[in-house]
Prior knowledge:
Blueprint lengths: L3 E4 L2 E4 L10 H5 L2 E9 L2 E2 L2 H15 L7 H14 L5 E8 L17 E8 L5 H6 L1 E7 L14 H12 L4 E5 L5 E4 L3 E6 L2 E5 L9 H12 L4 E4 L4 H5 L3 E6 L3 E8 L2 E2 L7 H11 L5
Parallel strand pairs: 7-8, 7-14, 11-12
Antiparallel strand pairs: 1-2, 1-6, 3-4, 3-5, 5-6, 8-9, 10-11, 10-13, 13-14, 14-15
Amino acid sequence: MTDTALINGSFVAAEQASISIFDRGFLFADSVYEVVPVYAGRPFRLEAHLSRLADSLAAVGIDNPHQHGDWVRLLNDLINVNGGGDQSVYLQVTRGAPARREHRLPQDVDPNIVAFCQARRPPPPATLADGVAAVTRRDTRWARCHIKSTSLLANVLAAAEAHAEEATEALFIDEADGVVEGSSSNIFAVVDGRVLTPALRPAILPGITRGVVLDVLAANDIAHHMVDHLPLTALRRADEIWICSSSREIMPVTQLDGVTVGNGRPGDVWAKVYGALQEVDHE
């Protein structure tokens, strides 16, 4: 963790940062968030992250507390005061802290803003060389996962179950036995020579890194398709599976539910996409 946090527009020592116990983000998870990777002091795809933040705020009816330019200035100042370099910025906007706890939405309350930085580390070489394991779990989350809400208990419990099975990620499966996304990632699979990913819908977060991967696939003429339904049966016979997120970039999955994926090694298509991602302008 870095030293300085941002609380409602003011920079404070991280260990002294606090908000009210009556904050609705704390009491109800009535808040939204973003995680922005930072490379060499430059926030990656900040425009896209702030656009998604605005969409999430609008979807839950929280007034956006800042104009776009003010967000850019505040977050860049936060990065700089924490030393630049490779970091990730966590940003959360809550509905605020009314004087009374009740489920009904409060009137005339100002949103609270919390932001801090963490050191960003590249994936271990063994992860890139060997891949990671994943498990599948039934999707028990709410129906509006396209909103980047802090209501993440179902995700946390699924991730804990994956960890207990020595896996890196839990992949959610819907009632129609279709693959949705991971507990903290989007998913791609190479099936019959094509890269497939679930099309965006309310059950899926529009991942920023997911969008970058799609751009890389198009730029490199790699056959790909966004599908309305990606059957679990197709995932089980996939030659390659990848998970991607702002914190993970793109990782190869070489074991699914204890069964080897493809030949058990990161695939050639993943290697090409991963290499191309390293050449993307990190701004």
